[in-house]
Design brief:
It holds the Pfam family Peptidase_C14. By secondary structure, the protein is an alpha+beta fold. The protein folds into five domains: about 5-255, 3-Layer(aba) Sandwich (Rossmann fold), CATH 3.40.50; about 270-345, Beta Barrel (Elongation Factor Tu (Ef-tu), domain 3); about 350-430, 3-Layer(aba) Sandwich (Rossmann fold), CATH 3.40.50; about 440-615, no CATH class; about 630-805, Immunoglobulin-like. Strands 12, 13, 14, 15, 16, 17, 18 and 33 form an eight-stranded antiparallel beta sheet that branches. Strands 2-1-3-7-8-11 form a six-stranded mixed beta sheet, with helices on both faces.
Length: about 800
């Protein structure tokens, strides 16, 4: 008899806090679907433990078994050597719990190719396989060896990584694969290759931190009606839930028309079974699939096609989670067993909006205004909603999904204006998650889309997903046509307050880009030097906000695109002929109409660009810092939005940094000088010079490098050189000696400090170690103290060291 078995892996590394909860929640919901679960966390989620557990699953799997492999934790990458054309550009992997153990020059990680090979071995046992990866840069992880996407930089033994990669690529099973994806495995991934995945508190799961993908997926799977869903429908439901709280686009790859954990397929989206109870036709799972009053369906008996002797149904109410249907053309008694409801025109999946407090006297008026739109539904609680309307003090404040206000302190919007702004946010959410065409509507990846910032010197800076931009920056969207036929490019800006603007307004249905040609939105027009970024008038500017530009490349012009940018209530034109045009009109009116048969479809591809816009001008750039032998800084973007400490955790007020181990082979036998620069954001800059006599060992308790308040975050720089007995201490050098000098924490300001120190120290002091310590992990101090790395040493060119990070105030 076929079995259902699931392997659940949770690797808690660094500042992650929700891993164990993710495994527990996913395990419980899968057991509700009949799975036996094998849960591996802590030391069982080591590199060797993960591979061993996966191989155990493979060995014990029989034909027709249903299997699930779930991973939650960090995803990362290591850059391949630039001077070897045969080597990969990126080595991508998941991060086990023993990632910091590099003893024996071995990399404790699980490469993407290893995951792909294990998945191939599993699908040779059974074709009913589901892989779920809730980690950064997860797309293409468990696929085939053809694509290596962008991911985070993590320093691991490169020789070992390259050897393992070469061995895996030579494996006969992987080498036999000629397609980009395993056709027998459904793969649920947290985000695209260029994106980050997030964890945050989940109100639906008791307020504890969880991976955002995991929380959304558990919410769908926990509904009794989910057994009737296809993976394509799960993707739509999960993506909607995720995009409402973070800028992250989950994806489902592979045979997406399969029903959950089954080999059975259903090509039609939105088809629901109908039940008759006490003479009334009902559809279960109304909340799950977003049924709304006014939705219309065609009821089709088993074995018959929609359109023959139709009985139509309209949703007249939602009772106990069921949609109540009023029938035309027949009665409930006429419905045969197995009758299905095919959508004719249904709500897109109304977005949840909270109106608080529920006792506010003005609440009924807001409710009445929102009831006029199919875009939203009203819920009682604020967490996880598209928006929250907060009533009080004789007025209303509208908060977006991140809790940021949309009105200034003195704004007095009317209920109608609030309702229109909510509809605007809902349309924006749908446009953000607009997906590329599939099947006959799929466009090959033959238009390269890139995003650039025009620097002050006129040069271009290539931007990546999640880039931090500033008011006054100028950006360019570049589209290069590699196809042999003309392509049509449209760009829609999803603004900070949800306003939609067609940026390619000279040809609203799509800019024509000839073969081999390039069009630059924001610069192809005469005299243009990029699209200037502005902060909307009246929008509070207390914090940065997320913005999205959506590029659509198509093989023909797209009618109806302009509908998206129209304010107010939009009605159907009745003249649109293309599927993508009808889809865009669906987004505008808030309801999805049943597709009609037509001629050749428009093929299209959607490329979103998410960025963070700061309300002020760009801070001045600093000089280029020297290259440090060991550099542990994350991307400079973390300076702009400082990670918060864990909920309920108080950041340390003091931090002690000690040198726990030091090896400088080039200075063996001679006296050593250490110069330490600590620049805590918002605090006084600290400088210290330490001298070690020839042959002296470090004290047992470590050598004190720095102590004091860490500020919002702490920049640390250490130089190492021979102690010649002369030269001033770092604290006495002119550029650092100003009393009370503070660091504002900006990259430019810190760079100027580091460069000044490097120039003053001269060529005998080598830049040895550079770090940026952040509050989300208590600056690395943990509870009391923490060694960095946990075991062994950090290695760089001519230097190896380890630090002890101590919170002296911890109990």
């Amino acid at each position: 008899m076929p079995r259902r078995r699931a392997l659940l892996i949770g690797s808690r590394v660094g500042a992650l806090r929700g891993v164990e909860g993710d495994v527990a929640a996913m395990g419980d919901v899968l057991e509700g679907h009949g799975f036996t679960t094998d849960r591996r966390t802590g030391s069982a989620a080591s590199a060797a433990g993960i591979v061993a557990a996966y191989r155990e699953l493979v060995a014990d799997t029989a034909p027709d078994d249903a299997t699930v492999v779930y991973y939650t934790g960090h995803g990362a990458r290591e850059r391949g050597p630039r001077d070897d054309p045969t080597a990969p550009t990126w080595l991508q992997y998941i991060v086990p719990t023993d990632i910091e153990d590099v003893s024996g020059d071995r990399a404790r990680c699980v490469l993407a190719e290893e995951l792909s090979l294990l998945q191939l071995e599993l699908t040779r046992r059974t074709t009913n396989v589901t892989t779920i990866l809730d980690c950064c840069h997860s797309a293409r992880m468990s696929r085939t060896p053809e694509a290596l996407p962008r991911a985070l930089d993590v320093d691991l033994p490169r020789t070992d990584l390259l050897r393992r990669w070469a061995d895996l690529r030579a494996d006969p099973l992987l080498a036999s694969v000629t397609t980009d994806s395993n056709p027998h495995a459904v793969r649920v991934v947290a985000c695209s290759p260029a994106e980050l995945a997030y964890e945050r508190p989940s109100a639906a799961l008791g307020g504890a931190p969880h991976g955002v993908l995991t929380a959304a997926l558990v919410g769908v799977l926990a509904d009794a009606a989910s057994a009737d869903l296809t993976w394509r429908e799960v993707r739509d439901l999960v993506r909607s839930a995720v995009i409402e709280v973070v800028r992250q686009r989950p994806e489902v790859e592979g045979p997406v028309d399969r029903l959950l954990f089954s080999l059975e397929r259903r090509a039609q989206t939105g088809v629901r079974p109908v039940r008759v109870v006490d003479g009334v036709a009902l559809m279960d799972g109304a909340a799950l699939f977003g049924a709304a009053v006014g939705d219309t369906y065609v009821l089709v008996a088993p074995g018959r096609a929609a359109g023959a002797a139709e009985i139509t149904a309209v949703v007249t109410g939602i009772v106990d989670g069921r949609a109540v249907l009023a029938l035309t053309g027949g009665t409930a008694a006429d419905l045969a067993g197995g009758t299905a409801a095919w959508p004719r025109e249904v709500a897109l999946g109304a977005r949840p909006v909270a109106i608080v407090p529920p006792t506010a006297t003005s609440r009924p008026e807001i409710v009445a205004e929102l009831a006029r739109t199919a875009h939203v539904r009203i819920v009682e609680e604020a967490p996880g909603t598209l928006a929250t309307v907060r009533l009080g003090g004789g007025g209303a404040q509208l908060l977006d999904a991140d809790g940021a206000p949309l009105y200034g302190d003195h704004a007095t919007p009317t209920p109608a204006e609030v309702a229109e702004d909510v509809r605007t946010l809902a349309r924006a959410a749908w446009v953000r998650e607009l997906a590329s065409g599939t099947g006959r509507e799929e466009l090959h990846d033959d238009v390269d889309v890139s995003w650039l910032r025009v620097r002050e010197d006129g040069g271009d800076e290539v931007l990546g997903q999640g880039a931090h931009l500033f008011v006054g920056d100028h950006v360019v969207i570049r589209a290069r046509n590699r196809a042999t036929r003309t392509r049509y490019v449209s760009v829609v800006d999803v603004g900070l307050a949800g306003r939609l603007e067609i940026l390619t307004s000279s040809e609203p249905d799509g800019i024509s880009v000839a073969p081999t040609h390039t069009y630059e939105v924001g610069r192809s027009s005469p005299g243009a030097s990029g699209l200037p970024l502005r902060w909307p008038a009246g929008l509070p500017d207390g914090s940065p906000r997320a913005e999205t530009m959506v590029t659509i490349a198509a093989n023909a012009k797209i009618d109806g695109l302009g509908q998206l940018a129209q304010p107010g209530v939009v009605t159907r034109s009745g003249t649109l002929t293309t599927r993508i045009g009808r889809l865009l009109e669906d987004l505008a009116v808030g309801r999805r109409a049943r597709e009609q048969a037509g001629g050749d479809p428009v093929r299209y591809r959607v490329v979103p660009f998410d960025f963070v816009l700061h309300p002020g001008p760009r801070p001045p750039d600093g000089p280029s810092e020297p290259v440090f032998a060991i550099d542990e800084r994350p991307d400079d973007a973390v300076r702009l939005v400082t990670p918060a400490p864990p909920d309920g955790d108080v950041p340390t007020r003091r931090l002690v940094v000690r040198l726990d181990a030091l090896d400088v082979p080039g200075l063996a036998g001679g006296p050593v000088r250490l110069d330490v620069l600590a620049a805590p954001a918002g605090e006084v800059v600290r400088a210290r010079t330490l001298r070690l006599p020839a042959g002296a060992a470090l004290p047992a308790e470590g050598l004190l490098l720095d102590e004091g308040g860490p500020g919002r975050f702490l920049d640390l720089a250490v130089w190492v050189g021979p102690d010649t007995g002369d030269g001033e201490d770092l604290a006495d050098l002119p550029d650092l000696a100003a009393p009370g000098r503070r660091s504002d924490g900006s990259a430019g300001a810190v760079a100027r400090l580091v460069v000044a120190a490097d120039e003053a120290l001269g060529p005998q002091a080598d830049p040895g170690f550079r770090a940026l310590l952040l509050p989300d992990d208590r600056f690395g101090a943990g509870d009391g103290s923490r060694r960095r790395p946990t075991a062994g040493v950090l290695r760089g060119d001519g230097i190896a060291l380890a630090l002890a990070l101590v919170d002296p105030d911890a109990g």
